[in-house]
């Protein structure tokens, strides 16, 4: 039976990328978009006209009270994520929350606890670990093909959004919006960060957003250095300060070889592998060039359908948030910051291909009361 979906936040990512995947999953008979809420009446009307859904709510909580909902997508501006995702879980729904899961550690901790206590699953963006390229690189790292990882470098950036002034307000910024991809990717390969040091700043103090010049009150430029322990280090270059690049998204340096992800970690184009044994580079193109970065929704639906656990856990998103907040503090205070949290390593269960995301025997899977 198709799962009823409600959406909070009917802005840019809803009307473009998520709408494409929603349409595809609807055509497959797996979901049905039934409700949406956004404080902006024009966005509510556009969504109602396009999808014939109920947008007659005055507040997000009214949508969450719908008993027929199975899945809620939280696609709002970042500082609303924690509160709304927690309320959606408390209302008994499965939840996908865009990144970051929250903008304060207190809110994020409440959300992780709510996810553990609630019947619903919580999938946290970014969904980088689900791409075929990432899965295959992860498999090779875990199989020891490039030896022990000692060093890595990642980058992602662009010139910055012109819509949504919230990107440049407190609780926004490039680290939360962009750096989170590289951080999530690197932690998936290396495990938890132990210490962080960073330069984080505002390079362009006035920017155009929503057709006006706004004063930037969030970071737009960062270099972050991560210490994973045992002299294993990685760096991230990220910001709304990059026009174009040709460098790999992620470079992993091991004792027996090198892996270089091509494209971006949210839109990978495959990878290149150097191995000392072969003495050459090999190119492995992305097996699904149309893989969408919204794939967490397909993954969540699949986990609900099959009663399986999600590949990455909310603790991974919590850890990424702690590291980003620590990077900001490190820059402000000029010192190295210790990281307290960890997260469980993940596996792809029965197989590495999209569509086989977990074993039914996985003890972390939750029973869905709505499926009985
Ligand atoms: N734009 C991108 O390329 C991109 C890519 C990946 C992820 N994201 C993430 O997706 C989220 C949305 O980004 P966007 O570009 O669509 O922003 P946007 O500003 O276009 O849309 C956000 C929407 O959320 C609405 N909103 C605010 N508070 C709300 C509330 N309490 N309840 C319901 N709706 C509320 C706003 O009115 C707005 O329409 C952000 O978390 C962002 O980090 C964006």
Summarize the structure.
It is built from nine helices and 16 strands.
CATH-level-2 architecture of the largest domain: 2-Layer Sandwich
Report strand order across the widest sheet.
15-14-13-12-6-11-10-7-16
Please report the number of helical segments. 9
Total beta strand runs: 16
**CATH fold title of the largest domain:** Dihydrodipicolinate Reductase, domain 2
Overall geometric form: globular
Question: Keywords, please?
Answer:
single chain; 372 residues; alpha/beta; Rossmann fold; Dihydrodipicolinate Reductase, domain 2; 2 domains; five-stranded parallel sheet; 9 helices
Question: Any overview of this molecule?
Answer:
There is one protein chain. It is built from 9 helices and 16 strands. It has 2 domains: 3-124, Rossmann fold (3-Layer(aba) Sandwich), CATH 3.40.50.720; 128-294 and 313-338, Dihydrodipicolinate Reductase, domain 2 (2-Layer Sandwich). Helix 4 (81-90) runs parallel beside helix 5 (105-117), helix 5 (105-117) runs antiparallel to helix 9 and helix 7 (174-190) packs across helix 9 (314-333). The chain has a 9-stranded mixed sheet. Strands 2-1-3-4-5 form a 5-stranded parallel sheet, sandwiched between helices. The chain has 372 residues and is an alpha/beta fold. Bound molecules: nicotinamide-adenine-dinucleotide (NAD). The site of nicotinamide-adenine-dinucleotide has 22 residues, from helix 1.
